[in-house]
Amino acid sequence: MMNASQLQLTEQTKELLALCETAVFSALQSALDKIAHIRQLEHEIRVSLGPRSFRRGVLMSVLQESAKTIPLWAGKPGEKAPPLCGAIPASPGTFVQPGDLVAALVPEPDVAATAACNLSEGCILAEVVQYDQDKRTYQVEDVDAEEGKV
């Protein structure tokens, strides 16, 4: 059986743990916000400099480095992940932001577009340029375009 001082210590420990958890979550969220801001600035600089051409090996190195900084979602315990996080599909109101890298389906002109992306139908790695709300389509730029390659 616990006495009053032990019970008070247990309650204080729980409060302290809750405060620590909140502080860690707040610090993590702040760091993720700063990373997102830096990525946005990098994108704006990249767009202002215009397109660059890379040798294939250099492009693969750039893509590997970019993969290390893929945005991270960190939620509170019990919180559900947002759309496009892991295997969670996009909701109808979800839009991809300009600068995001996507797998884009480029169907053959005589073949109807399908929802699945496979190599025979021309799936490319692309960067989103803009979203056309009237046509409900994305304009993308092929990251690995052959034109202008060294």
Automatic annotation (TrEMBL):
Domain of life, per lineage: Eukaryota
GO cellular component: SAGA complex
The SGF29 C-terminal domain, residue ranges: 92-150
InterPro entries referenced in this protein's UniProt entry, alphabetically: SGF29, SGF29_tudor-like_dom, Tudor_SGF29_rpt1
Cited PROSITE patterns: SGF29_C
Annotated protein name in UniProt: SGF29 C-terminal domain-containing protein
Species of origin: Echinostoma caproni
